[in-house]
Design a protein that fits this description.
2 domains; 6-stranded parallel β-sheet; alpha/beta; Rossmann fold; about 350 residues
């Protein structure tokens, strides 16, 4: 009989890092006849499921169920399962998993805010109920577990499907950035640092991708006061994202928001493009060897890094690029890791 696994995730309806990772792990497990999986999605209040996310879930090809409020959780699915695997310690999921005597695994994607509040205590108790706890960075882990960390927990980057193919060095040019255009993601800091930098814009253009509340405002500002060498694309497809990153020489990720992990440095490294990142949250943990780390929220520090890399020799750059790519191959957990982990959990 196959092991029955219920995979649970919260969502705000769109496709973000959690949704990408969740669907990837679901595909890993569904491809193995030793497992039988069902998907359960908690849609956060006041949000709607997007067509794009529905398409991603449909591609997994597993039975999928939805609920919105804790009182509406389909407890029959938790009774059905042998193992419950949830993205973040959703309190009602953890409660029923333990009440029904199920094995429980959690991946923590977000750092714990206000740990001593009523909500924080509920989340901490839910996390403590897990048999396995995985964290996407040591930064996140240290907000949930005080030293020494629990022996049944690990910290390693989460990631979804990425190319893992070195892009050609010939033709690489300039810088790329991609993120949600929201406060504290470093959008305005990067614009100012690039605008005031002393670089040859024809050789070192900046391409900024993504969408969000700040996009229209900052796009209009740049139209009124043009920045030479800057291209703002708005939303791009996955294919175009990796094409543009792979055609750049450096990828820039400069948040100042206590970022949990930082997916985009991993995506850049998967095509062999090294990174300039801020010392924010878990981002420095995933930026790779040879990356340049700048002070979070500091325009001068970021501008200095932009100017520094333009003076780097081709040989030095290619060495860093290869190093960051091959190091990532050693850091990532494969589908076999998750399959073996759930076999071990079931048999424990």
């Amino acid at each position: 009989m196959p092991i029955k696994i219920l995979l649970v995730t919260p969502t705000q309806g769109g496709i973000g890092g959690i949704e990408q990772f969740y669907s990837t792990v679901a595909s890993f497990l569904r491809s193995d006849k030793r497992f039988y999986i069902k998907l359960l999605v908690k849609v956060v209040s006041n949000y709607e499921l997007s067509g794009a996310l529905s398409s991603v879930l449909n591609r997994v090809g597993a039975e999928t169920y939805f609920y919105r409020h804790p009182s509406g959780i389909p407890t029959n699915l938790l009774r059905w399962s042998d193992i419950v695997y949830t993205q973040n310690p959703i309190p009602e999921v953890c409660l029923f998993a333990k009440l029904f005597g199920k094995k429980l695994a959690i991946t923590h994607h977000n750092w714990l805010q206000k740990p001593n509040s009523l909500q924080g205590i509920r989340w901490r108790l839910s996390s403590a109920a897990a048999d396995f706890r995985w964290y996407n960075s040591n930064f996140v882990r240290n907000t949930w577990e005080k030293t020494p960390p629990n022996e049944n927990s690990e910290s390693f980057p989460t990631i979804s499907n990425v190319p893992m193919k070195m892009s050609q060095f010939e033709g690489r040019k300039g810088f790329t950035f991609i993120s949600r255009w929201i406060p504290n993601k470093g959008v305005e800091i990067l614009l100012e640092a690039y605008q005031t930098s002393n670089v040859d814009r024809s050789l070192w253009p900046l391409t900024m991708m993504g969408s969000g509340p700040l996009l229209d405002k900052l796009t209009k500002s740049c139209q009124n006061d043009p920045i030479n060498g800057l291209t703002i694309t708005g939303f791009v497809s996955e294919e175009e994202k990796f094409q543009r990153i792979g055609a750049s020489r450096w990828h820039i990720t400069p948040p100042c928001t206590f970022e949990d992990m930082g997916l985009t440095p991993l995506e850049a490294r998967s095509v062999g493009v090294p990174c300039i990142v801020s010392d924010d949250g878990g981002v420095p943990e995933v930026c790779g060897p040879g990356a340049i780390v700048v002070r979070r929220g500091d325009v001068d520090s970021l501008r200095d890094a932009i100017e520094k890399v333009t003076e780097m020799s081709s040989g030095t750059y290619e060495g860093i690029s290869k190093q960051t790519f091959f190091a990532l191959q050693r850091e990532l957990r494969t589908g076999e890791f998750y399959r073996q982990a759930f076999l071990n959990l079931y048999n424990s």
